[in-house]
Amino acid sequence: MIKYVAYVRVSTIKQDLGLESQLNIINNYINKEDEILKIFTEKESGRDNNRIELGKAIEYTKNNNAILLIAKLDRLSRNVMFISTLMDSKVDFKACDIPTADNFTIHIFAALAEREVGIIRERTKNALSVIKTNIEKNGYHISKKGNMITSLGKNELKKEDWQKGQLAIKEKRLQNQNLKKAKAFANVLKGNGLNYVQITKLLNENGFKTSKGKDYMNTSTIRLFKE
């Protein structure tokens, strides 16, 4: 029997993955004979590393010789320094979405996530700058969909169109993140001497999907290294 201490985080701004969803992922991860000693719930923003409940969870995990368990790596933080601090605490922890990952692999995913946040922020900043410049110069900005924007803010668009646009952006962002994680994971496996057949098997076992949402085959794994 393995003893776990569950740590779940709910954003005070938005819930990308709610409390119930995280607990379901955790419960599906553990075996029937395993035990969850305690659940710590944190309400924090995505990049805030000062988390009281996490500190309590780490201490409780150490005192009970257990394993700290989270649903997804990004539930902990998108900050590499935070991940390093967690590992420096010497607490044994697992992420349900990367069950075979070691400390080196976790560093890779954390770095990729942090880089993605920076890219999204920079793209958003540049896009808003272009819109603002066009509005100041011409009095309006024409979007890629042909909508006229005369001021910044979602109220300028129809609510339905805005929601569809946000959903499409979110789906594309998640798809890109998944592919980057899959490629990083595959590179680590290849660096450890595994062949394409073995890498394909581990990609599928860890829940990775291709850009079309399908399981990996040897051909798609080879293609992953070329993308």
Automatic annotation (TrEMBL):
Keyword terms of this UniProt record: DNA integration, DNA recombination, DNA-binding
Residues annotated as catalytic: 11
Transmembrane stretches, start-end: none
GO-annotated biological processes: DNA integration
Residues covered by the Resolvase/invertase-type recombinase catalytic domain: 3-135
Record-linked SUPFAM superfamilies: Resolvase-like
Protein name as annotated: Resolvase, N terminal domain
